[in-house]
Amino acid sequence: MILEMENVSRKRDGRWVLKEIDWRVEKGDHWVLYGLNGSGKTSLLELINAYLFPTEGTVRVLGLEFGKTYLAERLRKQIGFVSSSVGQKIRPDENAYEVVLSGAFASIGLYEETNAETDRKGVDILKELGCLEYANRNFGTLSQGEKQRVLIGRALMADPALLILDEPTNGLDFIAREELLESVARIARRPDGPTILYVTHHVEEILPEFNKTLLLKEGSVFAAGNTADLISGPQLSAFFGMPVNVSWLGGRPSLSKGTMVRTTS
Ligand SMILES: Nc1ncnc2c1ncn2[C@@H]1O[C@H](COP(=O)(O)OP(=O)(O)OP(=O)(O)O)[C@@H](O)[C@H]1O
Ligand SMILES: [Mg+2]
Questions:
Q1: Rounded Cα distance, 236 and 223, in Å
Q2: Which of 18, 41, 48, when mutated, tests ligand 1's pocket best, judged by the most ligand atoms within 8 Å of its CB?
Q3: Three-state SS for 164?
Q4: CB contact at 8 A, 46 and 227
Q5: Mean per-residue pLDDT for 189-212?
Q6: What is the pLDDT of residue 262?
Q7: CA of 121 to the centre of ligand 1 (A)
Q8: What pLDDT is attached to residue 68?
Q9: How many Cα atoms are found within 13 Å in the side-chain-facing hemisphere of 209?
């Protein structure tokens, strides 16, 4: 079991932003987390990373239960987290290689001595993600797409059991997005790789490897289950409260606005 939430609710500023969440993530599955702006996706991720605690209910991540045997640092070392807020914290004068290496220590900035094995691993990761050519460039000078790849590399450095990607394709052009998704797909296919939790606003980014989906609506689980069942016209029309069509091509879905059926003449 990677993650287990039972009846989890969370209040922020006197308002419930997450309500009675029940969710289990098992090893071997990769999940998409899909929901409108403000539906609580980032708050849910903050609960997983122990940046936020549940007001009610229990959260267990990688065998650690909050408030019990729990050590936030220990947990975070086993979770790779890529989000715009992580990106904003990275020092712009640190080069891409150093940013990747800092992932071994779950630190922002590289303060510890690395050994030859860590260094080699950093290079392998840079190679795998296609970042080698800008390894010595300062993070602050990289393009959005290059930064995202470096951040994924940083997240992989500690061999996480769980890799969380919160809208990793934000600001990427079509080609950069597809290249990034190809890297994510390769990570998802690794037999010993991490369980992936992928947050997006775009169903077009749902890869065939993401076999499970959680639809989050106004802080509650609207539905959770097989991607093929949930990413469908009828399900998403109910989810949005407006008619939409879903078409599948090459194992990837795309969404378009549907037309209302006339019930009166
Ligand atoms: N630090 C905070 N203090 C108070 N309320 C917050 C805080 N962060 C988020 N919220 C509120 O919690 C709700 C859920 O926000 P959250 O950021 O989790 O949504 P989201 O699904 O990630 O949205 P988006 O798709 O826009 O990133 C929103 O109503 C938001 O205003
Ligand atoms: Mg968010």
A1: 10
A2: 41
A3: strand
A4: no
A5: 96
A6: 67
A7: 36
A8: 57
A9: 20
Taking the CB of residue 137, how many other CB atoms lie within 10 A of it? Answer: 15
Place of tokens 């970042």: 131
State the ligand closest to the CA atom of 83.
2
DSSP string covering 118-146: HHHHHHHHHHHTT-GGGTTSBGGGS-HHH
Q: Is the pTM of this model over 0.85?
A: yes
Which are the contacts of 37, defined by CB distance < 8 A and separation ≥ 6?
201
Rounded-to-integer distance, Cα 139 and Cα 154, Å: 12
Per-residue pLDDT reduced to its tens digit, 81-136: 999 888 999 999 999 999 999 998 877 777 777 888 999 999 999 999 999 999 99
- Give the type of residue at 107: S
Rounded Cα distance between 30 and 143, Å, is: 28
Cβ atoms of 139 and 150 closer than 8 Å: yes
Q: How far apart are CA 72 and CA 52, in angstroms?
A: 11
- For the Cβ of 12 lying below 6 angstroms from any atom of ligand 1, the answer is yes
Q: How far is CA 127 from CA 23, 124, 189, in A?
A: 35, 5, 18
Separation of alpha carbons 107 and 128, rounded Å: 22
pLDDT at 69: 53
In ligand 1, the atom with minimum distance to the C-alpha of 46 is 18
Task: List CB contacts of 14: < 8 A, sequence separation 6 or more.
Answer: none
